[in-house]
Amino acid sequence: MLVPPIMILGGLGLLFGGGLYFFSRLFHVEQDPRLEEILSALPGANCGACGFPGCSGLASALLEGKAEASACLVGGEEVALRIAKILGVEVKVREKQVAVLRCRGSVVERRFDYTGIKTCMAAHALAGGDLACPWGCLRYGDCVLACPFGAIKMIGGFPWVDEAKCTGCGNCVKACPRGLFILELLQKTVHVLCRSREKAKDVLKVCKVGCIACGKCVEACKFNAIHVNNYIAEIDYEKCTSCGACAKVCPTHAILNFRGERKERGILPSPKRNTKESVLSQTSEGME
Amino acid sequence: MGDTRLKVGPSPHIRSGDDISKIMWSVVISLLPAFGGVLYYFGWYAGLIVLVSVLSAVATEYVCERIRGVPITVSDGSAVVTGVLLAFVLPPNVPIYIPILGGIFAIAVAKHAFGGLGCNIWNPALAARAFLLASYPGYIVMSKWPILNKFLFGNINSSVDITTSATPLYILKNAPTEFQKIYSIKDLILGSVPGSLGETSALLLTIGAAYLIIKKYVNWRLPIAYILTVALLAVFLPYKSGGSLIGFWQPSFFSNPSGLLFRAVSHVFSGGLILGAFFMATDMVTSPLTSKGQVVFGIGCGILTAIIRLYGGYPEGVCYSILIMNTFVWVIDRYTRPRLFGGKSSN
Amino acid sequence: MKRTFRKGGIHPPEHKELTEWKAIEVLPPPPLLYIPLSQHTGAPASLKVSPGDSVAMGALIGEASGYVSANVHASVSGKVKEIVKRQNHLGAFTDYVVIENDGRDLWAEGRNSSRAYEHLTPDEIRNIIFEAGIVGMGGAAFPTHVKLNPPKEKKIDALIINGSECEPYLTCDHRLMIEKASNVATGILLLKKALGVDKVIIGIEENKFDAYSKMRAIFLSDPSVSVVLLKVKYPEGAEKQLISALLNREVPSGGLPMDVGVVVQNVGTAYATYEAVVMGRPLVERVVTVSGDGVKKKGNYLIRIGTPIQYILEACGVEDGIKKIIMGGPMMGVAISDKMLPVVKGTSGILVMKGAASYEERECVRCGRCIDACPMGLEPTAIARAVKNCEREAYIDLHPMDCMECGSCAYVCPARIELVQYIKQAKLEVIKARQKN
User: Fold this and answer.
1) In whole angstroms, what is the distance from residue C127 CA to residue C132 CA?
2) N or C: where does chain B have the smaller number of CB atoms within 10 Å of the terminal CB?
């Protein structure tokens, strides 16, 4: 009694199984076996920092020769070397960059009661934003949402970049409507944390730690690495040695040196031998 | 110390008075006449079922929103609507734990598991009814349904106070030619027939529905399309009666037009069609976005309801037909998009 | 008899009774005026004066820089105090010419003298309009001389005069049509000549029946000008909707009225044309409706361009506890926080509100009202979702660029979603993507 159903169902099973096998062979797509290897080597965050659509996008591009083996900024040295091995090429490892939020105005007031969509992008587009400073951080957290690695957190209502978690993918740079983020090498520890192009009187009206374009930093710099343009001090990172002299003289503390903090957290890479940075790091003291 | 700053927001700076709360509570109000019918035909216990169902739904919503960490929205009345509609599709003598379980399922599974109000695909009240039907079939689909002997007085659970008989739909399905002898159209419209709590009195339901349509909370096209489709198909789809097949190809079919009309009308006012067409299918979240789409949706529900009623295993098809059509709303929306002013653009 | 556009539209409460019976009153100019160099669509005017310069009323202080640009004139006589760079009501940094009013209202040479206009050629009329810095007074502030000079391939057969004033509260166009009917009519005929068409249609909403009667009486003997009653519906006064209602023509998506042979001009623009051509006055003042429950002396005021809103509030008296100040109408106007912002050429109204609700935005409940309300046949809820989920590819199919930001969708949304703000973001993304390619 059981035999007919067993035979029928078993036969159907064989038929469908065979059919699946047949069609999988018929419609088989030739795939480079290295694709799977590369995909497993990549971090899998699909952050898009490499410029390709997700990790599988980068994997295909690598095989086509359209991307460098070190394209994955997030994976860093380890991933770059593994991919180079899979592809059988030489690779120049890129140094890790982190995101820096160039604003310190955590207590800048809001000049009106904003009732629209609470995102930085939307707030900035409406009447130039509700912040009393037209250049500073709007504190609605678009960067926090944009970071695929959870490296940006709101602390006391102000975004803070956890440099240990930051992979330098650049999503926050794209997300901030005011362009407040930059990506810089970890060795570059000195940054001007303000982007306000207002005159000193107008800056101080709304923010006590903004750049008033006084020029003291320019005077203090021995490497010609900082200039004041359009009422804002800007560092030329090619020339900057992160000595911290400008940070010491800034009257509003708009310039900060992250060396001490990064050293303490153990994320400051050891400087290469015999560079300006290595010499200076032995002589200067960590600030703030 | 008040905030003396000016408010700045995007345009427009004025809004219509209708917000979610107003719409939901208006639906609750529109169901009050039918609730009166519940107490009248089925007694205080049936009223308790409605109350318990509402409380269960509201409590579940509160708990779910706390767990999810989202703002508590129980005051907007949407859980109350679900609670009432769920009770309205249950028989009057179900054990009290049935509406409790139903309320929990409707809100926790059919609503919040999908993301809360606006994100659910299926009508929560009907989804809960489907769940209860599958879990406790004996309580939901019976062959004999109770109704009070003396309206307004009595306990629906006491065998003394009630009359049990087959529902109108049951008779339409199994003995269609006997229908005229047992139930009159007047009975169906007033509601003095056995059935689920909310489905019996077409009159009371229609009063509430008229209120919603006048206030433009419900698009009249959807329920009318639904009802007309059922009416037409109930007449023109062939059905079995006493061993023989009755269909429109037979010469005697058109000889009794009043009989055809009677059949159409009795199908329209029997069972949960009025309740389903005006209150379930028109649920904003689970019905198509455009008027065009809603008409398609109504016709689809009508076709499925007629097929299930005439050929399916259950006497009532409204619940499943709406749930099935809910599944296709995304397709309907995709193909009933509004026309762009100025036609196709190049970008 | 009443025409209207076919799809969408809403019926917000009008509140016109607050000011529609108030005759136009002249508001004396303030001691200091802030005149921006950019108060029109197109390139900002280039500065022609320096601090310390004496200026006469109607003198050129900013010259049109390019074809799609407009001249800017001094609205009082006095001295240029300074040039300041401030954020305007949209947040863009703009140069403002600050003029100290000497209180004498001395017109510049050659200005404010009437001229014979019957024999002016279309070119001459257009030049006077350009010279006078006239822009669309309905709010969009598009340079009028550009609109009156469409490319040769676009055959224009009709001029539509927009007298619908569909925004709630606003009554400035209404009063202009009643009090200055003959001047408006002269302006209309001048625009007709400048454009070179044989047909003019004036559309007026039926809540302005007195204006309709007046204009109709004036043009009774002129077969080329018809005055048509429009149904009261928002946004009846939107260009594309107006053309659809009056001529049954649909401007193609991404196109302009000239693509269907029409040019639309506001009633206020017609009046400004009369002032410029017949009276020799450049655009230095305009009628503004000051209304809302937060202002004491509501009315329609003739205000000089550059008058700070603070001055108007003081002159009209403000109630305690105002929460919102809107430049324009409540549907498309801009809420401002800086009371020193001035009245500009496109400011049709200043609304002061005591109550301004802020709403908790909920998830879309898929009611479909926004789709029903949209006069352009768009799906605002779908666009908002695409913006929230960053689905850039979805924009191609949803046509956010066709949105005119009328606000009908957000007005009806029960979930209180800021649909217009989301659509504006979508538009920015589309423009960004186009610039990349």
Assistant:
1) 8
2) N
The residues, any chain, with a CB within 8 Å of residue C386's CB and separated by 6 or more, are C392, C394, C395, C398, C426
Q: Which of C16, C248, C262, C365 to mutate to test the interface with B (most CBs of B within 10 A)?
A: C365
Q: Cβ–Cβ of B340/C376 closer than 8 Å? A: yes
- Subunit contact C374:B6, Cβ cutoff 8 A: no
Residue C33 three-state SS: strand
Q: What is the pLDDT of residues A224-238, one digit of tens each?
A: 999 999 999 999 999
- Tell me whether C82 touches chain A (CB under 8 Å): no
CATH of A96-186, one of 3.30.980.10, 3.30.70.20, 3.30.420.40, 3.40.50.720: 3.30.70.20
pLDDT along chain B (347 residues), means of 10: 82 93 96 92 92 97 96 94 96 93 97 95 96 89 79 77 82 80 84 84 93 95 96 89 79 82 89 94 96 96 94 88 96 95 65
Fold of A34-94: 3-methyladenine DNA Glycosylase II; Chain A, domain 3 (1.10.15)
Q: ipTM of the assembly?
A: 0.92
> Residues B87, B57: contact at Cβ < 8 Å?
no
Q: What is the mean pLDDT of chain C?
A: 94
Number of A/C CB contacts below 8 angstroms equals: 42
* B-C C-beta contacts closer than 8 Å: 163
Q: B308: number of CA atoms within 13 Å, CB side?
A: 19
Looking at the domain A190-262, which fold is it? Alpha-Beta Plaits (3.30.70)
Which residue type occupies B306? A
Does C10 contact chain B (CB < 8 Å)? yes
pTM, to two decimals? 0.90
Residue type, C40: H
Domain with CATH 1.10.15.40 in chain A: 34-94
Mutate to test the interface with C, among B4, B6, B11 (most CBs of C within 10 A): B11
